Structure formats: C-alpha cells, structure tokens
C-alpha cells in the first residue's frame, strides 16, 4: 500500500477517535444539563425561605435559594455553550471523515481491480 494511503488511513483513525471522544463529552454534558434542569425545577417548587444545601466537594453547605438558583442558571448557560461548541466540532469532524473516506475509496479502487 502506498505511504500516502497509509497516512490517510491513520488520519482517518485519528479523526474517528477524536469524534468518539467529542461524542462522549457531549453526552456527559447533556446528562449534566438534565440534572441541572431537575435541580432548577425542584428549587422552583421550594419556598423562598426553604433551607437549601449545595454540594461543595464532599460537603453539603447551607445556602440561599436565590444564590443556588443563579449558580445553576450560570452552569446551565455554560453547559449549553460547551454542547454547542462540541456540536460544531462534531459536524466538522464528520465532514472531514466523509471527505477522507471518499479519497480513500478512490485510492483503493485501483488496488481492488482484477489484473
């Protein structure tokens, strides 16, 4: 197999691994977003003077409902932005993978023809 084709195959594998990593990160962030939404939903049900605790490392610390709500909303916004960025990276990688696969098919087609 020509060195250029071997390099393309290696590059394709690298792109596929990177894509898999991005998909995993995106999935984790989407799960985090669900948890944030559930927490915000529960906070909305709580009265303004309810005793609220938030997790800080391995501790639970008493906090104000408004502060915890604001923190969660900020985290939600940041998580949404990260998901958007990963989505763009995913699209770009999928496009690069498709392009590379097409080139490899052209490269390998002459090798598979009977002589």
What does this structure look like?
The chain is mainly α and 115 residues long. It is built from 2 helices and 2 strands; from the N terminus they run αββα. The protein has a two-stranded antiparallel sheet. It is rod-shaped, with a radius of gyration of 24 Å. The model has no long low-confidence stretch (mean pLDDT 93).
Taking all Cα atoms into account, the compactness measure Rg is 24 Å
Separation of termini? 16 Å
How helix-rich are the residues, as a percent range? over 70%
> Strand percentage, roughly?
5-15%
Mean pLDDT: 93
Would you count the extended β strands for me?
A: 2
CATH class descriptor: Mainly Alpha
Provide a short characterization of the protein structure:
This protein has 115 residues and is mainly α. The protein is built from two helices and two strands; from the N terminus they run αββα.
Notable features of this structure?
rod-shaped; 79% helix; 115 residues; mainly alpha; two-stranded antiparallel sheet; Helix Hairpins
Layout of strands and helices, then pairs:
Layout: H1 3-45, E1 52-56, E2 59-63, H2 65-112
């Amino acid at each position: 197999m020509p060195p250029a084709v071997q390099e393309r195959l290696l590059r394709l594998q690298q792109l596929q691994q990177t894509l898999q990593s991005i998909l995993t990160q995106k999935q984790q962030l989407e799960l985090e977003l669900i948890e944030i939404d559930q927490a915000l939903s529960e906070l909305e049900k709580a009265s303004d003077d309810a005793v609220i605790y938030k997790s800080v490392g391995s501790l639970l610390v008493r906090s104000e409902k408004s502060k915890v709500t604001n923190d969660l909303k900020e985290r939600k916004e940041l998580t949404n932005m990260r998901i958007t960025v990963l989505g763009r990276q995913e699209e770009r990688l999928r496009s690069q993978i498709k392009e590379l696969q097409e080139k490899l098919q052209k490269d390998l087609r002459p090798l598979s023809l009977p002589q």
